[in-house]
Amino acid sequence: MTGGSLGLRAGSYGSLLNIKNVIAGGGRLLHSKSFGSVRKNPIIMLSGSREKERSLPSIWYRYLGRRKFSMLLLVAFAVLVFVLGSFVVNKESNSPNVDQRIGTMSMAHYINATRNEASRILGRRNRQKGGDGNRFQASVSKGANHPCANFTFPPPPPPHLRRIGPRPCPVCYLPVDQAIASMPSSPSESPVLHNLTYVHDENPIKTEPHGGSDFGGYPSLKQRNDSFDIKESMVVHCGFVKGSKPGHQTGFDFDESDLAGLQQFHEIIVASAIFGNYDLIQQPRNISEEAKRNVPFYMFIDEETEAYMKNRSMLDSSKRVGLWRIIVIHNVPYSDARRNGKVPKLLLHRIFPNIRYSIWIDGKLQLVVDPYQILERFLWRQNANFAISRHYRRFDVFVEAEANKAAGKYDNSSIDAQVDFYRTEGLTPYSEAKLPIISDVPEGCVLIKEHIPITNLFTCLWFNEVDRFTSRDQLSFGMVRDKIMAKVDWHINMFLDCERRNFVIQVHIPYWRINFKGLKIQSLKYIIF
């Protein structure tokens, strides 16, 4: 690799390892000496340890007696379990120098996350063309002169060294200043659709025995089907059907003091949400001074979460928690906190009508890479205007539906009804016939989007499916995408999930909540896995 900045993370939901010392032109990495330690001969170590085993216990036993010696062992074991448990829980969140460590062995940890069936399909096709099936070339669309043009993932380790479960993998990011310079000066062209407006209805009426909500306007099946007929100008349902503007007497309402700020122009925003007091706010790390000045971070919370934060002195009148600007939501439209979370996730273009790019991350995640670098890597470098990671294991909607049922993610009858409906519309199990589409199932906790009419339409129609059917947006993603792609020349960058795990991490926290202002342990409530 020449140029660029290589970010690595090791371990399950591991911490970021930034390799910043890439030697320009040489394509070499500076290795940490900490990985060069030589292991001792195991036979010598074994014999020495056995001698100690014979001598030490007998000395302790002679002076303490059987009962005291047993109690001492129990106490030592309890202390060991406590120390190891604390280390496992806090090793990511409490390691101040985690971003400065350099290493190469962790580059192999991504393998089990990326070798899913869809990747094997592509690998077989590459081998049939004479390519190397053991190496995955990173996709670069900016030509051979791009600093990351020659970046490839390392080959997989031997089978006996592979680790089980999803892992992060290396990602080649440009330095922040170069990423900023890569930002397009003008919006991307929206294919076919140029003017998109939204249904306004102060008295929506449910006319069909299907799902939907007052907030979504109860679009009929005919209106739903018409919304997939892409034209130059369109009017579609997209939530917020009441009121003069989103957030003002529409349901999902904002404070008056926030409404004006949401109308302002921004090149880029980062957004997240916590509803039902379910997650803890995670502060972004490795954010450049340029991003801190120019990229606002918005966190949407409901009144329940606000009350908890105020009671713990985590939120005051400034409505700021670190980098996050807190937006309190009133009159949430759904009783299900997960479904309420889909409103800002999929309808950011309605809430922020004057922004160019947005990065959405679920509330359980911590951002650990600069927003400019993420946008350059997954949108600008790929000539894409929408990016989402594919699921690390499943790529078929029918398999995803069964997994949701087995995990109790939603009631089985509703999942079956949604999948059966899609089957009548032509949904089939994933196969090689869909290539170059490599997955029908996203890992939807991160959305990277340029706000242009076609991407706004996509998230509107995706939201309408979530409003009509189940809140499991993985089930409806592929159907909406395919219907739009059948009408216009448009695509979505579905990147590897191990790459997503490189720039967001799901922080492990202990089974208690902490008042970060007073540093006092609060009541037991949740744990995030």
Automatic annotation (TrEMBL):
Coiled-coil zones: none
Pfam families: TOD1_MUCI70
Ranges that cross the membrane: 69-89
Cross-referenced InterPro entries: TOD1_MUCI70 (IPR006852), TOD1_MUCI70_glycTrfase_dom (IPR048354)
Record keywords, A-Z: Membrane, Transmembrane, Transmembrane helix
Domain TOD1/MUCI70 glycosyltransferase-like, residue spans: 196-507
Record-linked PANTHER family: ALKALINE CERAMIDASE-RELATED, TRNA (MET) CYTIDINE ACETYLTRANSFERASE-RELATED
Protein name (record): TOD1/MUCI70 glycosyltransferase-like domain-containing protein
Organism: Gossypium raimondii
Organism lineage string: Eukaryota, Viridiplantae, Streptophyta, Embryophyta, Tracheophyta
